[in-house]
Amino acid sequence: MLDKIIRFSIKNKIVIGILTLLWIIWGVWSATKLPIDATPDITNNQVQIITVCPTLAGQEVEQLVTFPIEQSIANVPDIEETRSISRFGLSVITVVFKEEVDVYFARQLITEKLKQAEEEIPQGVGTPELAPVSTGLGEVYQYILHPKKGSEKKYDAKELRTMQDWIVRRQLNGTPGVAEINSFGGQLKQYEVAVNPDRLRAMGVSISDIFTALEKNNQNTGGAYIDKKPNAYFIRGIGLVTSLEDAGNIVVKNNTGSVPIFIKDVAEVRFGSAVRYGAMTFNGQVDAVGGVVMMLKGANSNEVVNLIKEKIPIIQKSLPPDVVIEPYLDRTDLVGRAIDTVEKNLIEGALIVIFVLVLFLGNFRAGLIVASAIPLSLLFALGMMNVFGVSANLMSLGAIDFGLIVDGAVIIVEATLHHLGLNKSKKMLTQSEMDEEVFLSASKIRSSAAFGEIIILIVYIPILTLVGVEGKMFTPMAKTVGFAILGALILSLTYIPMMSALFLSKKMNHKENFSDKMMKRLQKVYQPLLEKALKIKYWLVGGTVALFAVALFIFSRMGGEFIPQLQEGDFAFHCILPQGSSLNQSLETSMQASRIIKQFDEVKMVVGKTGAAEVPTDPMPPEATDMMVILKPQKEWKSDKTYDELADEISEKLEAIPGVSLKRTNLSKCVSMN
Description:
By secondary structure, this protein is of the alpha+beta class. The protein contains 24 helices and 19 strands. Helix 2 packs across helix 20 (495-503), helix 16 runs parallel beside helix 19 (468-493) and helix 17 (431-459) runs antiparallel to helix 20. The two termini are 54 Å apart. The relative contact order is 0.12.
């Protein structure tokens, strides 16, 4: 079978050339469509149920909200685990499904069961809602909305929050690939009716009367239509409150023969703000407002962020000239650094392999033929990654080994050169004679070489069987390497024999070249060492076993990490105050820490996120703060500090703040879902 493929490839060079061209076009097209990210998304298949219940303490939240919901979803099929968080005013339940379950089907199952849970939850306590269809790596773009320098006192946190909700958020909605724009910080504007207990008592009005009056007098209604030929007149009853004055003029009690009692007679109607569970600060100076753009699960983060960045300048024109949108976390920055690293390593690796091939094969043409298998195999891998939905990241592309890729091509080309060297004739071979020589040499060695490549592929099968977090992290690596080796195997049966027959020199030249001289010198060193090793073979095997035992002992004492630390160019500090600390106290402490961090010249900005956002996918308590430390590009640093040295100096300064527990972490770990 293999011989037939090789012979067909050599005899039909135009066909193989056209197929190779199509191969290149397919690979390049796939590269433009391939999802790009920094690391694989290892978030499990989960659905979050969020219930905001601002009037309940943690115990009541657990008893009245979390427990009924957990009971109602207990019989949903294909659930792996359920975990929950119940704290003051908030219940977050995370339901983890098996990986093969479609996330939208899982959400449908949960939605059906929530109807049962809503009947058991007391009325007015809270309504369970599903979190956005996103993942732990879904927070792809985070920005802050703040006044320009000198205009800090012109806008308060309530006005900034109104701009975020009604201008920025609304224009970002509808962006392809965006699941949710989650507002963070500021004060949510509300209409408030502050009742006067003395007036209520004097006028015989109860709180329930005020609730009823506000509810009944703040709605529109329809009254069908009147047919007055030739026109139809539609009847509307307009009663929605549009101003504070409208709310104050609502009648609470209107007894016959007495003066009507209005809301303004027993209460003060004013603008207020909702109870806050989180806040945001900017450079330790202002109570700022921001937003978190959450990407739809399965979307291409690079494309989504680019679409968002196209909209930001347009939205900026809608804001007052002294209010700016400033991003502080942009996934494309991290993706760009990761892809640059991959590109640099791939190019350097390819150049080294090409140099070694030309050096040891001793034939420039042969080296280039073998080296051409590298980009072609990589294009095949990119095409297969697009077919199977494997994203391009550090784990997948970074695992490609060019030595494995060119192994089959080296065997074919080297066997051809050796076979031609055995021919003592000095005549110039015709093309048909060259075709036959290449076929004979390739067919003799191809079966054993193919078997070797298949063995390499088998090595990666155990990785493909991994499940859970390990599977999501390492399976893309195994698939990508497998695709590249498979592509190299196909090329070694078709493209390499064709190119060898077409471009290798047809003139027999037995002149000793540099490669031959180098190999002879290496043989002179290697041969005596091999002979001595064979004489002490038992001692050598014993020493090898002992060395292996020492290595195992050292390995058992070494520390370990699931994945290496990824230097993202920025980092974050997790600031935790004693349990029960107020939100205002957390804000004061985090702003103090932010001002200390901002003193370092290498720091561009510090953004503090305290507590939970409006959509609390990461339900932090009020005493916890994530401080995002955004650094200047390292080439702009005035000192020669390393990334870790700067972090250690900042940590040392922050330790001076009493009663605060600090933990430094990667920026991406602070933006993951629960």
